[in-house]
Design a protein that fits this description.
- The protein is mostly helical and 249 residues long.
- It has one domain (3-209, 220-243): Ferritin, core subunit, four-helix bundle (Ferritin).
- 65% of the residues lie in helices and 0% in strands.
- It is built from ten helices and no strands.
- The longest helix has 29 residues, at 32-60.
- The chain starts with a helix and ends in a 6-residue tail after the last helix.
- The model has no long low-confidence stretch (mean pLDDT 96).
Length: 249
């Protein structure tokens, strides 16, 4: 497998799994307008996933399409961040995840616009505009919930705290990433950490929530080592395609 295939697959898996989790809020959000907003965010993530997984299939050269990569790989073959696969929990948890993940994606896509790979640069150029809205949406809710009632503050704090141990994986680097970054194709995520922390902590401070304390940091998603939750997510995501292989409509 080429370095670029693995890299694009990682980004596509992140977007696909995040889209599936976001879609779970449709018809379950606290208000009708939020159903629409989260539906649009999920569609943005799904669009990114489609572009990236389609490109990954081309790079692999084995005849697999975006659908093959999404529906006919097993849990250990997925390389998404563990943060993306965790259950939604309550709305405070969902907004904490969106703040953490969208801020990371925005920094990443902004840098990838200058990629030496034209396809990656093109995907990033479109995605960075979408993700800017995701960041703003999450920010407004974190501020509203954190600086709201005692109950909303408690829930927002709980969401920020419980997901913080999964954020270090956003910035893990390896030899593959370093090779692609040196070739000006990819972004070494370690270079994004300082600015990510500045932006996220600025929002948390403004929300009157306390900064999450450093603790054990989970890892392994990039190597196919996932939480117990990904298997259940994939069972739902892949059920129709695996029950009716080759079907079209």
């Amino acid at each position: 497998m080429s370095d670029l295939f693995v890299y694009v697959l990682r980004l596509g898996d992140d977007a696909l799994i995040a889209a599936q989790r976001t879609a779970e809020w449709i018809a379950a959000a606290p208000q009708l307008e939020e159903d629409v907003a989260l539906g649009n965010i999920g569609l943005d993530q799904l669009g990114q996933a489609r572009s990236l997984l389609s490109y990954a299939g081309e790079l692999e050269g084995a005849g697999r399409t975006e659908d093959d990569l999404a529906y006919f790989r097993d849990e250990r073959d997925f390389t998404n961040l563990q943060l993306c696969e965790l259950p939604n929990g309550d709305f405070g948890h969902a907004m904490a995840r969106l703040l953490y993940f969208a801020t990371y994606q925005h920094l990443l896509y902004d840098e990838l616009r200058g990629s030496a790979d034209e396809t990656l640069a093109g995907v990033a150029g479109k995605a960075v505009k979408e993700v800017a809205y995701h960041v703003d949406h999450a920010t407004q809710w974190v501020l509203r919930l954190g600086d709201g009632t005692p109950e909303s503050h408690r829930r927002m704090q709980a969401g920020l705290d419980s997901l913080w141990p999964y954020t270090a994986e956003l910035f893990e680097s390896d030899e593959l990433l370093q090779r692609l970054a040196q070739a000006e194709v990819a972004v070494d995520p370690a270079s994004l950490r300082t600015e990510w922390e500045r932006r996220v902590l600025e929002v948390i401070d403004a929300s009157t929530c306390a900064r999450p304390e450093s603790s054990y940091q989970h890892s392994g998603g990039r190597d196919g080592r996932h939480t117990e939750h990904l298997g259940y997510l994939l069972a739902e995501l892949q059920h129709i395609a695996r029950s009716h292989p080759g079907a079209s409509w």
